[in-house]
């Protein structure tokens, strides 16, 4: 299977300057190529291709040799390919009739935060993992410290150097990662995803989300206001921006730590997991939706489902996705559908069979029954 491994790297001040120069020129190349595409379309009524732009790289490297000598040649090609993929995705969204197609935009330094080394296997090709446990990155003087907190498995296919705030990370994408089959438990569980309780299982167990954004949004609002008052280009603005980035980073880290631990627990304890197939994007785009959309984003249901999927594949577990329609409104005892059920109703009471139980527990049992019937059919 395919997996990506993320490691923190610790370049010194001189190495950070080298990396920033590489990031800066790749961003300049991306923006220049985008400007060329826009101008070409205005003049000729059609878009210029990736191959046409890539053929200009030889002249660009000669023209800016003092900067491009630091940059691995395939990284420049990957930058142009990145723009080309943005264009292709834009046209796909237009063809699909998306309300917001999202035309490729020019990148400032905060929006251009990664560079790719294609075909890098960490034995060369731009990035090399040395025997002393350090990294050699093309264009960066000296060896770069890296913390390999877990072993890298499989065949490394490419490497990304990513900047998050004032930190740098290496992301290695690997193929043929060996499976880690867990021992059978003989247990099947279903889960109902929610906001009041992040997860409710079919046996009534509840797990609560830390809701990091809800906890930190006042501080984020204050730091954003503080940043807006700083003069552009000043050191004070840079410090304010770094403070804001650190709070955002902490918020994301808390959320991802919880989601990973929760997914690992469910995968370890169950052979089969039955979950709702939620269309989170439609929920966020829907108008007049009862739920605060910020709470949906904070819960990160889609990210959690993705984690469950790849962790289950590696552990030899089974994930069954079911249609969530009416799972909250249906009585798990008699099948009656209660049309008038608002989000404020936290207890489900069935007027037909007089069942009374927690709303999310009832939904989880309906999800369980649906999943079992799907499994029987297939």
Helix and strand composition category: alpha+beta
Major sheet, described briefly? 5 strands, antiparallel
Give the CA-CA distance, first to last residue. Answer: 24 Å
List the helices and strands in order: EHHHHHEEEEEEEEEEHHEHHHEEEH
Residue windows where pLDDT falls under 50 for at least 5 positions: none
Tally of helical runs: 11
Net shape: globular
List how many beta strands DSSP finds: 15
Beta strand %: 15-25%
Mean pLDDT: 92
Strand order of the largest sheet: 2-7-8-1-6
Helix content: 40-55%
Radius of gyration: 25 Å
What key attributes describe this structure?
378 residues, alpha+beta, 5-stranded antiparallel sheet, 5-stranded mixed sheet, 11 helices, 15 strands, globular
Question: Secondary structure elements and their pairing?
Answer:
Blueprint: E1 3-10, H1 13-44, H2 50-54, H3 57-63, H4 65-68, H5 73-95, E2 114-118, E3 123-124, E4 127-129, E5 135-137, E6 145-146, E7 155-164, E8 167-175, E9 188-193, E10 199-201, E11 206-207, H6 212-228, H7 235-269, E12 272-276, H8 280-285, H9 293-299, H10 301-315, E13 318-322, E14 347-349, E15 356-358, H11 359-377
């Amino acid at each position: 299977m395919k997996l990506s491994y993320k490691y923190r790297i610790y370049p010194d001040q001189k190495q950070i300057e080298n990396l920033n120069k590489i990031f800066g020129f790749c961003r300049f190349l991306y923006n220049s190529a985008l400007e060329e595409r826009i101008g070409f379309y205005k003049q000729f009524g059609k878009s210029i291709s990736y191959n046409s732009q890539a053929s200009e790289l030889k002249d660009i490297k000669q023209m800016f040799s003092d900067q491009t000598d630091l940059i691995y040649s395939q990284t420049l090609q990957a930058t142009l390919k990145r723009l080309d993929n943005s264009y292709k995705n834009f046209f796909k969204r237009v063809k699909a009739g998306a309300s917001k197609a999202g035309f490729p935009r020019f990148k400032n330094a905060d929006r251009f935060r990664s560079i790719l080394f294609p075909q890098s296997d960490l034995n060369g090709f731009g990035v090399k993992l040395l025997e002393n446990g350090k990294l050699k990155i093309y264009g960066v003087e000296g060896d770069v410290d890296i913390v390999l907190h877990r072993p890298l498995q499989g065949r490394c296919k490419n490497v990304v150097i990513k900047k998050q705030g004032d930190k740098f990370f290496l992301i290695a994408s690997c193929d043929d990662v060996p499976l880690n089959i867990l021992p059978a438990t003989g247990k099947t569980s279903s889960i109902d995803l929610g906001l009041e309780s992040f997860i409710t299982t079919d046996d009534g167990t509840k797990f609560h989300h830390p809701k990091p954004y809800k906890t930190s949004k006042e501080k984020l609002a204050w730091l954003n206001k503080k940043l807006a008052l700083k003069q552009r280009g000043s050191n004070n603005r840079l410090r304010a921006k770094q403070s804001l980035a650190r709070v955002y980073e902490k918020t994301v880290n808390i959320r991802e730590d919880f989601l990973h631990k929760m997914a690992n627990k469910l995968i370890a304890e169950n052979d089969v997991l039955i979950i709702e197939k939620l269309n989170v994007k439609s929920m966020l785009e829907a108008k007049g939706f009862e739920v605060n959309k910020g709470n949906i984003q904070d819960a990160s249901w889609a990210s959690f489902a993705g984690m469950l999927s790849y962790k289950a594949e590696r552990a030899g577990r089974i994930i069954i996705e079911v249609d969530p329609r009416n799972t909250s409104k249906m009585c798990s005892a008699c099948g009656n559908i209660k049309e008038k059920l608002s989000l404020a109703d936290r207890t489900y009471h069935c007027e037909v069979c007089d069942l009374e139980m927690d709303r999310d527990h009832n939904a989880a049992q309906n999800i369980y029954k649906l999943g079992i019937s799907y499994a029987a059919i297939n």
